Amino acid sequence: MKKSLLTAIFMIFAFITHAQNDADIIKVGDQMPAFTIVSDNGTQTSSASLKGKVVLINFFATWCPPCQKELAEVQQKLWPKYKDNKSFQMLVIGREHTDAELAKYNEKKGFTFPLYPDKNRAIFGAFAKNLIPRTYLIGKDGKVIYAGKGYTEEEFAELMKKIDAAIK
């Protein structure tokens, strides 16, 4: 009985680990996928327009508690430091959200950085299958130099260091 229980626990752990690894489509060293963000009003932002910049892409959802913590850090520490840097671009993308939902959310939270919609997961789907928050830092050469899942203060500090190094 103990042996079969241990085997079952091991199989569940292996499945979860495999499922989490399968969630990653884009990894460090990969080229940033091509995408175009289309707002409800028709405004478009394409990945091609970001060429030569350090790009931070963050996927979140308004209902996600770790996302809320991370975005508060972005507002307090990251955005004020990099918002005026011409070599830096930040895309905070609401997975499965419309412009209207994001505007309402932003009004409530008071963020000063723009939020972009991805109502059909089209952009998120080019990067990952599941799990948010997700953060990708793209170097000036268009390659991923950092990929993070979830949120911790330590990882956020590491991200800030990577942005500093990439901008230089």
Summarize the structure.
The chain has 168 residues and is of the alpha/beta class. Helix content is 41%, strand content 21%.
Textual characterization of the structure:
With 168 residues, the chain is α/β, with parallel strands linked by helices. The protein has a single domain (26-167), classed as 3-Layer(aba) Sandwich (Glutaredoxin). The protein contains 5 helices and 7 strands, in the order αβββαβαβαββα. The chain has helices at residues 2-22, 65-82, 99-109, 124-127, 153-167; strands at residues 36-38, 44-46, 54-60, 88-95, 115-118, 134-138, 144-149. The protein has a 5-stranded mixed beta sheet. The longest helix has 21 residues, at 2-22.
Task: Give the helices and strands, then pairings.
Blueprint: H1 2-22, E1 36-38, E2 44-46, E3 54-60, H2 65-82, E4 88-95, H3 99-109, E5 115-118, H4 124-127, E6 134-138, E7 144-149, H5 153-167
Parallel strand pairs: 3-4, 4-5
Antiparallel strand pairs: 1-2, 3-6, 6-7
Structural class: alpha/beta
Beta fraction of the residues? 15-25%
| Average pLDDT for all residues | 87
The CATH class label is Alpha Beta
Total separate domains: 1
Q: In which order are the strands of the major sheet placed?
A: 5-4-3-6-7
Query: Globular, elongated, flat, extended or rod-shaped: what is the shape?
Result: globular
CATH architecture: 3-Layer(aba) Sandwich
Separation of the first and last Cα atoms: 59 Å
Q: Give me the number of helical elements.
A: 5
**Element order: H for helix, E for strand:** HEEEHEHEHEEH
Largest sheet: 5 strands, mixed
Task: Determine the CATH superfamily.
Answer: Glutaredoxin
Rg over alpha carbons: 17 Å
Share of helix, binned: 40-55%
- Tell me the CATH topology: Glutaredoxin
Strand elements, count: 7
Q: Which blocks of ≥5 consecutive residues have pLDDT under 50?
A: 6-21
